[in-house]
Design brief:
By secondary structure, this protein is α+β, with helices and mostly antiparallel strands. It has four domains: about 5-15 and about 35-325, Rossmann fold, CATH 3.40.50; about 335-420, Thrombin, subunit H; about 425-515, Rossmann fold; about 535-764, no CATH class. Strands 26, 28, 29, 31, 34, 35, 36 and 38 form an eight-stranded mixed sheet that branches. A six-stranded mixed sheet has the order 2-1-3-7-10-13, with helices on both faces. The longest helix has 19 residues, at about 720-735. The protein is globular, with a radius of gyration of 27 Å. The N and C termini lie far apart (about 55 Å). Residues about 1-40, about 215-225, about 240-255 and about 620-650 have low confidence and may be disordered.
């Protein structure tokens, strides 16, 4: 279709749009009212491109699947109202036509629209001499030697052609010219800016005619909004990815990254956002969701990626995601996608599990079909196999239970998690090393139990860390000044952030370096294992943890509570903006823990650095308990080993209905935030039973304490401790469910027996 012919069709479609405007209710404070509007329609256009001609991506089509399944099963979109364009179907012409025909022509006032794009972005010059560039989305028909991109200006005009303000764009792309398609083991979703300039005359003519057609919809509205923020909101994977105004931003911005997990690849931002939204309740707001997703993204991507929010409604604190309430008040880990003829076997989509969990999700894990009837007999599905985010599951004990009809679309919730006991750590060996260095490294890592290797840039399997040489720039980032360290070997995060405690000497042999970092590899394995207990979305344990600022001024910062035990209409406090919480060095913090159960709750608190290579554990020698236990008791909870040194601690208990503060010493000394800058992570692990195995291991006193604060110690045997923690959680699960089927190959964890709550914040 020629461009001018296409414009004629645009004119016909936009004329029809005027008849579709019904004057429905606009966004209100409580978005549950929006879902109750029976005449409103929900439309989506999802675009994902992997198979570019010169450089392919891996996770963009998965992004579209993640978004589509979420919209259908959690936000009530009709599948026929979701148009998907992937790979060869995602040409420039088809994307623009789909926008006009599927969105502009059908949407009326008060309808809800979602536009998602995953693929490459870049910046192009607007004219030979003009020092002006514009962000673009790169379609599949981007032939070398030409510029056939979707311009920011074109997207803005299409956006303003919509008759509704309830519009959301999700852009998992970036525009920065990196000169390299990868960072560590992560792919960058941006192309190098072309040397060719855009045919400004052709594009300006097209834009002018399209703008003229858009103005025919409502000239008054366009005159008011044309130079202001775009209607609705734009969720961007990188800070420069937002379409903020009619003039293109000139800053280089940040990077949108995608990662390879066990069996699938996806954009960091899309996965983090959609995964959290599977657990959404009616109280879930856009700002809370973006804050949670940002924390996950920054932990994986380091400083390279920072999601952003723009648009006319970006500052509305109570704004719901996609302007909609979820179609069920409870969250889920996934949904039934298909049922086999026997009626007992189903294919499940598990987009609601955290990436760290799904990657090692074991066979025999159990999910329960969510039912609206209270006290209904549980219908359990046991996993038999997994491929990426899809699993095959079978009705458990179907011979002894009442008949139940499995149906596509039914939500499923986690009941029992099987975590493999013997998991490997994958080290990606940098291609920047010489061939002989890579050979020596592969041989050296092969001698370490439960450690496997791959090569950076390969997408065959994921990597937990990288092995490479340390450069001067790496040392600058961590404020290290030793000249001897430059050129030495060390470990890096998957996003190529140096792990400071793995730096060696410059002339060190490869095999010597590998032997030297074995303790750090064990710590990374321990962190991986502990993170796999994260169950904020699925736990049924009624506990709550509050991160508070104690100084320089008292303030509640973040609250965490298992989502399925919350009041679905009342959101918990989150950070003050849509970004991750930042705390200044020197600030003093504390955690307040509440037990809302009718029985005692036991807990452990672990602190991880930004790479997971250093793990500390709280010593509750300075814990105050209320209302049933005295401070005096907690002060006497330190144990002493045979050498007269303080061991870690005896088990503390949060009584039924009680609360506990960590730390609150008798002299009122709270934890002080110390350097270095970067991310900090806390894991609070609650259980219905004591951590007996863990405490026995901790009493060996394999920990070190530095500085004046004796309330926490760095573990020197983190892997052993982590394994004991999971064994203790299994023991608690067996106490909760005596018939729980256990295995010698995996830990069996009942979601009613434990809760792991994660706090991630930035130290500045």
């Amino acid at each position: 279709m020629k461009r001018r012919d296409f414009l004629q069709r645009v004119g016909w479609m936009t004329t029809a749009m005027g008849a579709l405007q019904a004057g429905l209710t606009c966004l209100g404070d409580r978005y549950a009212q929006a879902l109750a509007q029976p005449t409103s329609r929900k439309l989506a256009l999802l675009v994902g491109i992997n198979q570019y001609a010169d450089t392919a991506l891996n996770g963009c089509v998965t992004d579209v699947e993640l978004q589509r399944e979420l919209l259908i099963h959690r936000f009530g979109f009709n599948p026929s109202d979701i148009l998907v364009l992937t790979d060869r179907d995602a040409t420039r012409q088809k994307i623009v036509e789909a926008f006009v025909h599927h969105l502009s022509a059908q949407a009326g006032s008060g309808d809800t629209i979602v536009f998602h794009f995953s693929g490459f972005g870049r910046r192009v010059k607007m004219g030979e001499t003009a020092n002006v560039v514009q962000n673009t989305l790169v379609p599949i028909d981007n032939a070398q030697g030409t510029v056939n991109d979707l311009l920011e200006q074109t997207l803005q005009l299409l956006w303003r052609s919509l008759s509704t303000d309830r519009v959301t764009a999700v852009l998992d792309t970036s525009y920065v010219d990196t000169g390299n398609g990868v960072i560590g083991n992560l792919k960058i979703r941006s192309l190098k800016s072309p040397s060719l300039v855009l045919d400004r005359e052709v594009e300006s003519d097209f834009a002018a005619q399209l703008l003229s057609e858009v103005r025919t919809v409502s000239s008054k509205r366009q005159a008011q909004e044309r130079s202001g923020p775009l209607p609705g909101v734009v969720l961007a994977a990188a800070s420069s990815a937002a379409l903020t105004s009619s003039s293109s931003p000139l800053s280089w911005g940040e990077k949108a990254l995608e990662a390879q997990w066990n069996g699938f690849s996806a954009g960091l931002f899309t996965y983090a956002l959609t995964q959290y939204l599977w657990t959404a309740t009616p109280a879930t707001t856009l700002h809370i969701s973006l804050s949670r997703a940002t924390g996950v993204v920054e932990q994986l991507a380091g400083p390279h990626q920072l999601p952003s929010l723009a648009g006319q409604d970006a500052s509305v604190r109570s704004l719901p995601v996609y302007y909609l309430a979820p179609n069920a008040p409870w969250g889920a880990e996934g949904a039934i996608a298909a049922v086999e003829e026997d009626g007992k076997t189903a294919q499940l989509w598990l987009g609601g599990l955290p990436a760290s969990t799904i990657e090692a999700y074991g066979v025999n894990s159990i999910l329960t079909v969510a039912q609206t009837v209270e006290d209904a007999q549980p219908v359990e599905l046991q996993i038999r196999s997994r491929e990426g985010l899809t699993v095959k599951a079978k009705l458990r004990n179907s011979e002894t239970t009442e008949p139940f009809a499995l149906q596509p679309g039914q939500l499923v919730q986690e009941s029992v998690r099987m975590v493999p006991r013997h998991q490997s750590l994958t080290v990606a060996i940098s291609t920047e090393l010489e061939r002989i260095e890579r050979v020596d490294a592969t041989s050296a890592f092969a001698s370490i139990p439960h450690v496997s290797t791959t090569v950076t840039g390969e997408s065959v399997q994921p990597a937990d860390c990288l092995f490479s040489k340390v450069k001067e720039a790496d040392l600058v980032k961590i404020a290290a000044t030793s000249a001897k360290s430059e050129g030495s070997y060390g470990l890096f995060s998957p996003s190529q952030v140096l792990i400071a405690n793995t730096i060696g000497e410059k002339e060190e042999a490869v095999k010597t370096a590998v032997r030297r970092i074995v303790p750090q590899l064990e710590a990374l394995r321990a962190a991986k294992l502990l993170r796999q207990t994260d169950n904020l979305g699925s736990s049924r344990l009624r506990v709550k943890a509050v991160l508070e600022m104690a100084a320089p001024r008292e303030q509640i910062l973040i609250q965490r509570q298992p989502i399925r035990t919350q009041n679905p209409d009342r959101p918990l406090r989150e950070s003050l903006d849509n970004e991750m919480l930042s705390l200044s060095i020197g600030s003093r913090i504390r955690y307040r823990l509440d037990n809302q159960e009718a029985f005692p709750i036991y807990f452990l608190l672990f602190g991880l650095d930004d790479t997971g290579s250093i793990i500390s554990i709280s010593r509750p020698s300075s814990v105050a308990i209320s209302p049933l236990q005295s401070v005096q008791k907690s002060a006497s909870s330190l144990d002493t080993n045979e050498e007269g040194k303080s061991a870690i601690f005896k088990q503390e208990v949060i009584p039924s209905g009680g609360s506990l503060t960590i730390p609150q010493a008798l002299n009122s000394v709270e934890w002080a935030i110390a350097g270095p800058t970067g991310l900090a992570e806390t894991l609070l692990i609650f259980s219905i039973a004591p951590f007996g195995n863990t405490l026995d291991t901790l009493k060996i006193a394999k920990s070190s304490t530095t500085g004046e604060d004796k309330s926490a110690g760095t573990l020197l045997n983190p892997l052993e401790v982590a394994q004991c923690v999971l064994q203790d959680l299994q023991d608690a699960s067996e106490k909760r469910s005596p018939t729980l089927a256990t295995s010698a190959d995996a830990y069996a964890l009942d979601t009613q027996a434990w809760a792991t709550l994660r706090f991630i914040y930035r130290v500045v």
